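Milestone M4 deliverable, item 7.
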Amino acid sequence: MIRAREEFLKSDLAKQYNVVDIKTIVIPPGLWKSYIEKGKADVAWGGGPTLFDYLYQEGLLQPLTLDIALKAAAEIPEEVAGTPMKRKDEQGRIYWVAAAIASFGFTVNHERLKDYGLEVPKTWSDLASPALGKPLVELGEPALGIADPTQSTSNTRMYEIILQRYGWEEGWKVLTLMAANAIVYPGSGDVRDAVIRGDIAVGITIDFYGYTARKVNPACEYIIPQGETIVNGDPIALVKGAPHPEAAQAFIAWVLTEGQKIWLSPDINRLPANPKVFETPEGKERQDLYEAYKAATQAKGMPFNDTLALMYEQVMQWYFKATLISLNDRLKEAWKLILQKYFAGELSEEEFKKYVDKLGAAVEFVDPETGQKVKFTQEYAIKIRDRFIKDAAFKDALITAWKRAALEKYMSIIKELGG
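Output delivered:
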């Protein structure tokens, strides 16, 4: 975004609309709503479509109206790999449009995989496998890296993909074992950097992080899990109450046209939303990125219900953090004991499956409102979403209840296995 700011300010559009400066503010997704409501922003950019659809549903975006912005938006495909690249209302007004596209998968470091004697993973469930847990058991070194979903929109989307690909119950089992196999980093950029350095063998990443990793370290490779990914458009939008709506739309128009060249920079490596950029001299020099663009747009994707993801997203993020991140040491302790006994032949396949099912099951906990014991189902997460977002005391009580239930589960397994 710094590069975009610098280049836009040199452009004819900036001069035409008297834009002499742009202030860029980077804040966590959870603060976007309050910041926009204070009338402090013109443009929302960065973060995935789920975040932008939430802003749209909350009435915090306004449609594009300026001719240059509408003409620029028309150059962006309506959909890529079956996924919408624009959010329109019933009247056809555009509320957000993709400025770049992205797929979701993992980046591997082949040298580190070889060191650990690991096969190249192909699916999300491979990241939750006993095989990937071997370095944790034998060397005390997690081979995988993931990020905190409350700090990463891309990792949030990957966890949602897993929940929809495998189903809620099996999906949480995959997510639990992934967290058990992993170092949990604060942000997605930290995961990418750890793969590049070889601190880990595999890291879940958005595609352009994988392309950047390959540029920095040729031992790295980005892998799209075929049939288990989606191709997203990363939106840009005009926000409600924008102080400078015309200048803001001029900037959006530039981002969707001339500004697409920014993505071609070797230190950015994003896939443009506007394929016309590959017809420019700069685009023709990035045949590697063009091949990546074709691979992403032709990837075998999976059905994904964006509306469903939005219905439980914030609840899912904090449940993940409470049960899999805050208690990660205890989770690892239980998983290591299961694996140690399994690898030593002290657990049969049936017994191993029983413990995996117990470890990965969504918790049963005491609902702070009703005092009744309930299970963390998809239906429950959807039911409480609105109150969870708006009622801080309710949210805190739930997080405490989830932690308590998860800790009891982990300690029960540890005790059963003699830990």
